[in-house]
Design goal:
Elements (H helix, E strand, L loop, with lengths): L2 E6 L2 E6 L6 H8 L18 E4 L2 E4 L12 E3 L12 H8 L9 H15 L5 H7 L11 H15 L9
Parallel strand pairs: 1-5
Antiparallel strand pairs: 1-2, 3-4, 3-5
Helix pairs in contact: 2-5
Bound molecules: FE2/S2 (inorganic) cluster (2 copies).
Length: 164
């Protein structure tokens, strides 16, 4: 089996993996990063969304070895229970979740939306950007409100984004 090296949430990782291993399974089963969820087997739900070199990808559609030499960021890497990321705080504030299964993917997709569209977002943009993320519970209204407000908070002087 090939050995590959990657960086996950700022930590260097070297592992021997089956070349067919999916990135999502590597994160969950080998690294114990179970905040990245698996909600389908058809690359449709977005529950597995992580960032690869700063861009959102569906980790069920990427091989672990494709992360070689690259930076992976998961929901565990953006904030903590003690210090929520502004996007996480906005989801809590707006009740942007019910069961929470889709939430990590929604947040990672929301952050990629900010990367590409900036911190002043409108509902139309957010709804279009979250097309690849499915929620079975909320009806999306509160999720959209959370992403808009989370983005605005990221744009405020109070939030200094972490390096990477
Ligand atoms: S588990 Fe990846 S898109 Fe559903
Ligand atoms: S909150 Fe349950 S799937 Fe979205």
């Amino acid at each position: 089996m090939p050995t590959f090296a990657t960086t996950v949430n700022g930590i260097a990782v070297t592992a021997e993996v089956d070349p067919r291993l999916l990135l999502v399974d590597f994160l969950r089963e080998r690294l114990g990063l179970t905040g990245t969820h698996v909600g389908c087997d058809t690359s449709q739900c977005g529950a597995c969304t992580v960032h690869l070199d700063g861009r959102a990808v569906k980790a069920c559609a990427v091989l672990a070895v494709q992360a070689a030499g690259r930076e992976v960021l998961t929901i565990e890497g953006i904030g903590s229970a003690e210090a929520l990321h502004p996007m996480q705080a906005a989801f809590r504030e707006h009740h942007g979740l019910q069961c929470g299964f889709c939430t990590p993917g929604m947040i990672m997709a929301g952050l990629d939306t900010v990367r590409r569209h900036g911190t002043e977002l409108d509902a139309e943009t957010v709804r279009a950007e979250l097309e690849g993320n499915l929620c079975r519970c909320t009806g999306y209204h509160n999720i959209v409100a959370a992403v808009i407000d989370g983005a605005a908070a990221m744009g405020s002087a109070a939030f200094a984004p972490a390096a990477g």
